[in-house]
Amino acid sequence: MLLLGAVSTFSLVVPFGSVEAQTQIPAVTVDAPVKRARPAAVASSRRAATRTSRANRRSSAQPATPTQSASSNGATGERANGPVRGFVATRSGTATKTDTPLIETPQSVSVVTTDQVRNQGAVSIGEALRYTAGVSGDVNGGSDTRFGALQIRGFDTTMSGLYVDGLRIPSSNYVHFNGLDPYGAERLEVLKGPSSAMYGGSGTGGILNYVTKLPTAQQFGEVSISGGSFNRYQGQFDMGGAANKEGTVLWRLTGVVRDGQTQVDFTKDNRVFIAPAVTFKPNEDTTITLLANYQRDRAGWGLQFLPASGTVWPNNGRTIPVSFFAGVPSFNAFNTEIATAGYQLSHNFTDNITFRQNLRYAYQHNEEKTFYGTGYTDEAAGQLGRFGSYSNSYINSFAVDNQLQGKFNTGILSHTTLVGLDYRNTTFRDTAFAVTTSAPEINVFNPVYSYDWALGGMYDNKGIKQSQLGLYAQDQIKLGRLSFQLGGRQDFVTTQLDTNLPPADTSTSKDASAFTGRAAVMYNFDNGIAPYFSYSESFLPQLATSPSGQMLDPETGVQYEVGVKYQPLGWNALFTFAAFDLTRDNVAVYVPATTFYEQIGQVKSRGIELEGSMSLADGWNLRAAYAYIDAMVTQDPVNVGKAPVTVPLNRASLWSDYTLQNGMLAGLQFGGGVRYVGATWGDDANTFKVGSATVLDALLAYTRDNWRLSLNVTNLADTRYVAACYGLSGCMYAEGRKAIGKLTYRW
Fold this sequence. Notes:
The chain has 747 residues and is mainly β. It is built from four helices and 37 strands. The strands form six sheets. The chain has a 22-stranded antiparallel beta barrel. A five-stranded mixed β-sheet has the order 3-9-10-7-8.
């Protein structure tokens, strides 16, 4: 069925094996492999001279060998989508679609690097985002095997804000890319606030861009085995390099195999992930990278939809166990398949004119077998009603983005101008059947499981087709240290819905178009301080339907943001402060009772975020984040003045780790983090609250030669708390203590 969020962040990154230089994989780039020789008779003397001067300029701007200092990413040729040594990324292409320094980007962008993911032991995208200001990737807790509920600045963006290498992957609440394995990502980038001026249909809160690992010019390899809580066993590998002596063909292969369970009884979490990539450089001006990935998950249904009585507060002194399973063990599956294939093409016509084309086909399939709680039938006795469902969902998506970038001057102004044309076509098909069992109720304190079930009647059979065409333009203008950013986009969207349920088939369609814009101004002082102001808009056509079967109207959004970024001179660090005012109209909210969405009106989100990252060469890593988000329903038939569920007023986190550099214990790394999530409202009417929680994480690792042995423990104190509630009968536990040990060998 279609089911269809005032501290600085420090990141001190210690490179893997920083104590032993030979254990590090050197920073690599695919920008300048050995140039392929050409017969003199083929090229004209003018063309040859142009290429020679261009090559000379490049060689003078880049080091001859791909080395990287641990103290400064900015001086090492970091690319917007390339690897980062440590926690501090200095460049990104997510906000502007151009390779732009973050200190010159007038919008909030948070980058989670592979080093941060590794040090914190994150095994999902949701876990990787736990130390990011204003963001939650696991709103529903660690037992959500869907890996859903991505929240940015108080708004759920699961269905609208998931991108892979800058191309949106349409989603439903069951089939989405938020569950892609983080091991396949070079970096995870969160662009906060409306961004339709560049990306077309996208949510108000922002977007998450999963930047995949690309082939490298340096030969390398890594193999890891790990095991830990919930009978989890995993193997993973990442390897690649040049396929020929000239360095014009590069390759990479990344993979994960996992067999595991979750804290919920009878619920598996098994995975196979593979991602090959090949880069071709036929000449110094052209690069094409072929990319693909495949992920197959065989999991159980992790969300139990438990009552607030017995989770948020005691039920006559009793508490429902965190491991409680509300379903039928013989009918429990959440199986997904995700596959993509595409390419990234870049060609330089001249030094100042570049054409890029990104193309991807994506296939997603989900099979769901579940019984989950529907609320007490007898609260005193602990008898819980259950609903059973069997469904299959399919999403096929094709997307292509064509970009032409030019750099030029007009008098005293310098310009980086981008024009683009993109197209996306999406088809969604969902069927769902009711399922019954001889024991429709279960006791939450003394469960006795039934194993029989019977397939009932079909209650959902819909198909949705959507095509979107967008034309956009952007100009990044510089006048000395003062810069301006102007952008606009026109979108044309057609959506068609077919409902094939007896007694009659119905078909409806909706056309929509919109112009969205973005404007910003920024000033970069000599001391590394850069204040900015930005205005941006969003436009989001819906793939969802109302209970009456009608297509929903597009959501729209507007944001005003003022902020300051600080990149201290001589430090590998970046600090940001942002204050924002977001307004989201035609808000679509999921209603569990109907399994459809309804548009409630308008929600405002206002707040501040402070974030920073810093990586020092002496082996100390520190990262911290804080967000204050005041979200409120401002237009609604019932709940005006109420706060949306699952949005805490305050959220803060701090992570620090240190690696000994000298002495007998050189290579020993230890660290930890603390995460605080404030109280949230548990229902739309704000009649009860879900309490706040503070959780501790820990790291202990040792690196010697090419080996690394590590132990990560999340929720060290095994704090029991409720992650979220969507009503009195829709609460989810957060994940308890989880320990994972890992042994890694790199060469």
